[in-house]
Amino acid sequence: MKILLIEDERPLASAVTRVLSDAGWRITWEPDGIKGFQTAMHEDFDLIILDVMLPGKSGWDILADLRAARKNAPVMMLTALEETDDKVKGLELGADDYLPKPFEVPELVARVRAMLRRDKINKSVVTKIADLEIDRKNRRVTRGGKLVALTRREYDLLEALASNEGRVLSRETIQERVWTDEESYSNTVDVFIGTLRKKIDAPFEVKLIHTIHGFGYVLKADPA
Length: 224
Known about the structure:
- By secondary structure, the chain is α/β, with parallel strands linked by helices.
- It has helices spanning 10-22, 33-42, 59-68, 84-93, 105-122, 152-163, 171-179, 188-200, and strands spanning 2-6, 26-30, 47-51, 75-79, 97-100, 126-129, 132-135, 140-143, 146-148, 209-212, 216-219.
- Helices cover 42% and strands 21% of the residues.
- Helix 6 (152-163) crosses helix 8.
- It is elongated, with a radius of gyration of 18 Å.
């Protein structure tokens, strides 16, 4: 597993590199935002750990440009900023996790393991979330063993949510990834979420599609 660390604080970067290397991962460290972005663009990584405040190019800009270029490696943001607006900004730009400084090393390792495990599961041909199964190869969806008939857009929306299981996607992010800003209006996502819920959740006691008010939508088995 290859991990790219883009962090300008040398002592922190050295400690993180040592710990993650000891855990068995191959680490590439870049202390500069511009060089870090170039490395992320030209190499494939299983995970990118990205600081927000960087020389040359900010972590926000790196993340936005990577997602615009369809670089979909999981990204964990590291920052000393703890404001809710900053966390929301990172999630809306496409971050997968958010770890404020200072942090405990065991927590970092645990989160890295969880992100890599989740990404591996999401890349498999069949995605399973509770009793929901999505066959990506055949674009076939079942829940509780019963076939669920979805339109093309409904399937694309469900797959986007399932690929980011447990992670909140904003309406803007969904519009960009599913509709690519074509044929979409301000309430398009809400309308399709409604129709998807009728097919995926309505017939079942356990609900999988959840609204996070002020943030967006998330697909997960645990509503907490």
